[in-house]
Amino acid sequence: MSTSSPLTRPDAAPTRYFAGDGEHDHRLILAYYVAAVGVLSLYGIRVCPFIAGLDALAVIATFLVAFTAAFGLKLALEPRLMPAGEPFTLSIYQFAIDLALFTAVGVGISLYNHHIHGFPLESGGKVLIGCMMFGIFAGLDNGLRRERRTPSPLDRITETPRKIFPITDRLFVIFVCVGIFTGAVSGLVIVKDIDYLIAHIDDEPHAKLRRAIFIDIAFVIGTVLVLAMRLLWSYGNNLAYILRLQIDGLAHVSEGRLDTFVPIITRDEFSLIAAKTNRMIASLRDAHREQDELFAVSQALATELRLDPLLTLIVATTRGFVGADRVSLFLHDAERDELWGRVAEGSAEPIRFAADRGIAGECFRSQQPVRIDDAYADPRFNPEFDRRSGYTTRSLLCVPVEDRDGRCIGVIQAINKLGGRFDVNDERRLRAFAAQAAIALVNAQLFADLARAQRYSESILRSLTNGVVTLNPQGQIVTANAAAQALLGLDGSDQGSDFVECMGTGNDWLISAREAGREHYLGEVELIRRDGSTRQAVTSRVPLADPDGRALGTMLVFDDVTEEKRVRNTLSRYLAPQVAEQMLANADLNLGGVDQRATVLFSDIRDFTTISEQLGARDTVAMLNEYFSQMVEAISAEHGILDKFIGDAVMALFGVPFPGEDDADHAVRAALSMQERLVELNARRAERGEAPLAIGIGLSTGELVAGNVGSPKRMDYTVIGDTVNLSARLESATKTYGVSILLSDATKQALRGDYPLRELDRVRVKGKQQAAVIHQLMLPAEQLAPAALEQYSGARERYLSGEWAEAAALLEDLCRAHPEDGPSATLLRRCRRLAEQAPAYWDGAWPPPENG
């Protein structure tokens, strides 16, 4: 049995309570049995004149034995007869059991006196009435006590009883029962005694008999009144106990003890108050727990500023917060106007869809929660995601994630409530959590932007060839980029040190450099470093201030004007920057001409002559500048070296002057990037109403000669050889085959990565005896299905073996299915020509030898 306070919820599972299990006190009913023995014995011995001559011990013994037996039966049978139930039901059973036992005692004594002692039945009737009177009062009093002493089942403490008996009705029933039985007992006793008095009116002594009868009546009425007062006191005690429970419960709640509950021990208005109080406490407890959880979540979110771990934390916390099986966080991509699952449980790849599509899109656009109990019954739900993942979505809850300005930045979507459906409380909890998550996301984004800006600034400082030093208002070094450290002889340990002390004596220009308040050009000064060496630099001072104009310090900018800087600037005008840097870094580098292996990229604008005639000179130059800017960026991003511009053509080198194992891969990626940038360029040209551009690209890998070529007055670092010529011819062949990028077989063999390649042809290059195998690097728009590629390969096998008619039949089917495929159309025309006029000699290379 639970030993906890009636106002404290035990941690154990709900317990059922039974009579006789140690929770109910039998002392009260024992007192009633003792009182019944004493009152009825006294009534029989001292009051009732008919049995006044009986032996007192015999009368007492009769009642004592009878009530002792009844009490023993009560202890033995009551646990089996008393069912499980709430206190009010148990009190009714308690009343019935006690009344039955007292009645049984009265019936037993009456029959015993009638059959053994020969008493008349009317005398036994008095005994029966007296026992029943005690039984009614004892049953009501003991029932009220059980009502007070028996806790209600703990799994129903917040339920409202199905049927309510108002207090007024209960009091009315009690008073009616007491009144009826008291009146009946008193009336029967008085009538019987008056009848007895009238029957013996002439007996002597009459006064003594009359006094005995009056004493009899007074004794009975007095006993009934005493028992009635005791019953009213017991009922009032119950009411006081209930009120005390209510008051104590509210006092505990006011003290913050939300583990309190008020037992429901009646079916009257107090049960309604207790049930509502318990529901209130449960709501407060849930709200307090929810508040604690939300506070803990807020602390966790506030301490995580890295965006990716924060997103994972939000999803994991949301799942436990609302009891969902899966959770996804969709953020808004403003550039594409799409929602994408930065963290989507159950999806191996990020999910992207239009911001106005599906249930998440509806939630994002309306900025209102969306709760769905049956996803497949809602037309907004897209079951395609379930088909991909094999997951079944049953219920959904989506809430918008809004920043502090009310702008929706994403959607949190909880899927499949565990153990039921999402309700209003889940919606409210998730909205509160989404508000906290939005703040954390904004803070994390700001932190990421700040970190990105800091990295960007640091990157700028590192990439600057000019030396930059920033000082705080006290003249201490805050930052010094690599160029400044190399120029001034500083290192990382000087950060936070006084700049003048770090530079040492002899630097008179420092007096002007430390002055703050305005920008100042110091001109060319001599820098005396700590090791005593000197450097020349053009120096300027720029004051630093915050947006409010408060001074933050000073920035010093040093432009190195030493001989090395002058040489670097000069070389950069004639050579690619990479070549110039490596020349300065590697004094032994021989640029006079070396044999090495490299990859050459050659590109050309299609129909450039026509375009230039239409545009005119000025617009042609503007178009070329815009085009070359994009192409050079694509080449530089892949560590390529721009060799030269040849009209509208671009020649780039990969692996010169220092070759690498992945030069061919860099060249291929540069070619793909050039085509991608061309698509973006054409989009901008279309917005301006200008015609699109198309380019062809050829790639060739092989041995070539790299070095300085030219006259003593004008040298140009370049490459020459068959590899260069082949790349130019491959670029020209892109027009013949109707493709964008062609590469040589040597380039294909040198590739380390996987790319969408297709072997196109074997061609005879001018000046070369051996035919060259060429391959197509397919762009996304040029790629074919595996079956189509296999069909093209089969046609080429027949073409190479001289079965031109069969090859033409396969190619005709392929061209009908893919009319945009240039290589198929080219090979089909060639097969038809060869089938009509076969060459004298055929080795599979095109064109066939003229003399066989």
UniProtKB/TrEMBL annotation:
<feature type="transmembrane region" description="Helical">
    <location>
        <begin position="212"/>
        <end position="233"/>
    </location>
</feature>
<dbReference type="InterPro" id="IPR001610">
    <property type="entry name" value="PAC"/>
</dbReference>
<dbReference type="InterPro" id="IPR048440">
    <property type="entry name" value="MASE10"/>
</dbReference>
<dbReference type="InterPro" id="IPR000014">
    <property type="entry name" value="PAS"/>
</dbReference>
<feature type="domain" description="PAC">
    <location>
        <begin position="521"/>
        <end position="573"/>
    </location>
</feature>
<dbReference type="InterPro" id="IPR035965">
    <property type="entry name" value="PAS-like_dom_sf"/>
</dbReference>
<dbReference type="Pfam" id="PF00989">
    <property type="entry name" value="PAS"/>
</dbReference>
<keyword id="KW-0472">Membrane</keyword>
<dbReference type="InterPro" id="IPR029016">
    <property type="entry name" value="GAF-like_dom_sf"/>
</dbReference>
<keyword id="KW-0812">Transmembrane</keyword>
<dbReference type="InterPro" id="IPR003018">
    <property type="entry name" value="GAF"/>
</dbReference>
<dbReference type="InterPro" id="IPR050697">
    <property type="entry name" value="Adenylyl/Guanylyl_Cyclase_3/4"/>
</dbReference>
<feature type="transmembrane region" description="Helical">
    <location>
        <begin position="52"/>
        <end position="72"/>
    </location>
</feature>
<dbReference type="Pfam" id="PF00211">
    <property type="entry name" value="Guanylate_cyc"/>
</dbReference>
<keyword id="KW-1133">Transmembrane helix</keyword>
<protein>
    <submittedName>
        <fullName>GAF domain-containing protein</fullName>
    </submittedName>
</protein>
<dbReference type="InterPro" id="IPR001054">
    <property type="entry name" value="A/G_cyclase"/>
</dbReference>
<dbReference type="InterPro" id="IPR000700">
    <property type="entry name" value="PAS-assoc_C"/>
</dbReference>
<dbReference type="InterPro" id="IPR029787">
    <property type="entry name" value="Nucleotide_cyclase"/>
</dbReference>
<feature type="domain" description="PAS">
    <location>
        <begin position="453"/>
        <end position="494"/>
    </location>
</feature>
<feature type="transmembrane region" description="Helical">
    <location>
        <begin position="92"/>
        <end position="112"/>
    </location>
</feature>
<feature type="transmembrane region" description="Helical">
    <location>
        <begin position="28"/>
        <end position="45"/>
    </location>
</feature>
<dbReference type="InterPro" id="IPR013767">
    <property type="entry name" value="PAS_fold"/>
</dbReference>
<dbReference type="Pfam" id="PF20970">
    <property type="entry name" value="MASE10"/>
</dbReference>
<feature type="transmembrane region" description="Helical">
    <location>
        <begin position="124"/>
        <end position="140"/>
    </location>
</feature>
<feature type="domain" description="Guanylate cyclase">
    <location>
        <begin position="599"/>
        <end position="731"/>
    </location>
</feature>
<dbReference type="InterPro" id="IPR003660">
    <property type="entry name" value="HAMP_dom"/>
</dbReference>
<feature type="domain" description="HAMP">
    <location>
        <begin position="248"/>
        <end position="289"/>
    </location>
</feature>
<feature type="transmembrane region" description="Helical">
    <location>
        <begin position="171"/>
        <end position="191"/>
    </location>
</feature>
<dbReference type="Pfam" id="PF01590">
    <property type="entry name" value="GAF"/>
</dbReference>
